[in-house]
Amino acid sequence: MWENLLKEDTGSRVQIIQEIHELILAGEIEVAKGMLRTLIKVTCGYPAISDKVGRNSKSIMRMLSPDVDPGVKAFMAVVRAVERQSEKAAAQGRIH
To answer: Which strand (E) or helix (H) includes residue 48?
Structure first.
């Protein structure tokens, strides 16, 4: 799947983040959450995101679980944190 692409091509993360934003705007939150889970696992990991968002990693895992309504503010904070981590890693040319 696209997990391998994310590991091999750091620039592809920007495209995935854009797709996540489009899914959110289209109301496809469950799909966006699934993509975020994969992006976090393959790239920076939950602890890095939890540091940026100010929530523990288990809370973020629950927030991104299927059928959980995370709340717009908390959800978008996670999206922005993942986006910043991905951009930072892409600029450095590395995965983590």
So the answer is: helix 46-53
Residues 83, 17 contacting (CB under 8 angstroms): yes
96 assigned to some structural domain: no
The pTM of the full predicted model, rounded to 2 decimals, is 0.78
Give per-residue pLDDT as tens, 19-38: 999 999 998 999 999 999 98
The residue behind tokens 């705007």 is 25
Distance CA 13, CA 85 (A): 10
Q: How far apart are CA 26 and CA 21, in angstroms?
A: 9
Dihedral angle computed from the Cα positions of residues 95, 47, 1 and 9, in that order, rounded to the nearest 10 degrees: -20
Mean pLDDT of the chain: 83
Domain range spanning residue 14? 2-89
Which of 45, 36, 42 is closest to 68 using CA atoms?
36
pLDDT, position 3? 66
